[in-house]
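Troubleshooting log. The previous structure file for this entry was overwritten by mistake, so regenerating from the original sequence record. Sequence copied from the archived sheet and checked twice against the printout by T.R.
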Amino acid sequence: MYPHFQDAELENWHDFEVESRKEITSLLRGIGEKNQLIRMLIHGEADVCVTSILEVDEPHNTVYLDCSIDREQNKRILASRRLSFETTLDKVRILFAADRIEAATWQGNPAFKIAVPPTLIRLQRREYYRISTPVTNPVRVLIPLPDELGGNTTFPLADISCGGIAILDNKMMLGDAIGRNYADCRIDLPEIGQVATSLQIRNSLDLTLLNNKTNRRLGCEFVGISRGMLSYVQRYITKLERERNARIAGLI
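Regenerated output below.
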């Protein structure tokens, strides 16, 4: 249902899907009450309209949305077969879709209406909160590679969450590794301990720097990580958060 939201976080979108009608209407109401702007994307076109939720009419299974000020764009929206919506609520990304949109009026003004979506995606749940790891004296992960690729090799981390890590592979040692699993990896978390887990490479991003050097950032998912190891990760994230908050407050 959601593959057209193209970004790395959505590879496992099923894990973030909300199916409870009560929770869906509550989230949509919250978006409307906080006047959060919503990106409305016409599927198959690079046509984006900014809208907002005017009302969630639960008894009639209807969500009223603001129109575009562009009449031609409104026509394209009404003619589209599928629409995608993206917004945030309390720093959480919310995504949903509609197969049909209709013209309506709300409090005497032109509006759109869609059915209450049967599901939506609520991303960045607290346990998947990502935090950048130190650039100086970086945290490193040891990945056992085949002998022909150099054997045990360490890579610096870029960020960490309870779902996985991002690593920097600037020497391109892992090649086209998306989907590959690496067993018996070790992450040394300062003042916390060593985390043992398998990693699966989920996405790759090459960035060209100003000096024309290329940085490769690989998103890795924890596979089969134990509860005890996960608690180490959570403690380390909490430690980084405290240090960052102290810096912001000027305490360190």
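The radius of gyration is 22 Å. Archived copy saved in two places this time.
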